[in-house]
Amino acid sequence: MQRGQEQHTEQDGDIGCCGYILMAFSYVLVALFFPLSLCLTIKVVQEYERAVIFRLGRVLPGGAKGPGLFFILPCIDDFKKTDMRTLTYDVPPQEILTKDSVTVAVDAVIYIRIFDATMATVNVSDAYQSTRLLAATTLRNVLGTRLMAELLTDRESIASNMKVQLDEATDPWGVKVERVEIKDVRLPIQLQRAMAAEAEASREARAKIVAAEGEQKASRALKEAADVMMESPAAIQLRYLQTLNSIAAEKNSTIIFPLPIDVMATFMKK
């Protein structure tokens, strides 16, 4: 803001003798054609607008006018309106070569507003267009120093870094970059297929590990159950009865009765 005020002070100077003569002549014209001259001298700017007035090519002291009514002199005054609202612009898709030599297409969106209408009018011909072009260049410069994996996982940090650089560059133009967002990162088709195959292989490997761990736990449980049953033959008989109950519930026509373990032991000894 101080730089802008210094520039305003430098631009505001004495309009000279001819300038004062033209001002007097302009006031005479306004008085002669009053009240019709009010149509040319009174202007209105909206709440979200500011008007920068030039008198004989110099910016009037006091900065931008508005909102509301303001007065200009015919023939010697000119003004330019500036929209102070936050505007959104899409940065055109950029083909970028990342740090690990991968070509990606990146889309971004920027939110900008003008905080000083005089600076935006005097210091740059088109503040919004200049900011859009600068955003495209900054996007390529920032992403060119990042790895492809960072583009996919660290978008917030990239957007924050880009916002800081844009805000510093556009400050002399009276433009404030409020937000930068990375919309989309499009990878080559071959790279997408390779990443999908890698992810699928990783998922299959994790599934096999989980299945193996489950088999290991089940085997340990079966071994512990077998050890318990070996210590008590009655437990085996109870297990046989539970199995018979399960078979009977299924309404099968053929039922096999398990022999007592004592009888089987006798035959096994013979």
From TrEMBL:
UniProt keyword Ribosomal protein, yes or no: no
Key word Membrane present: yes
Keywords: Membrane, Transmembrane, Transmembrane helix
Transmembrane segments: 20-45
Family named by the database record: Belongs to the band 7/mec-2 family.
Lineage, uppermost ranks: Eukaryota, Metazoa, Spiralia, Lophotrochozoa, Mollusca
Localization, UniProt: Membrane
Band domain location: 40-199
One GO term describing the cellular component: plasma membrane
Name listed for the protein in its UniProt record: Band 7 domain-containing protein
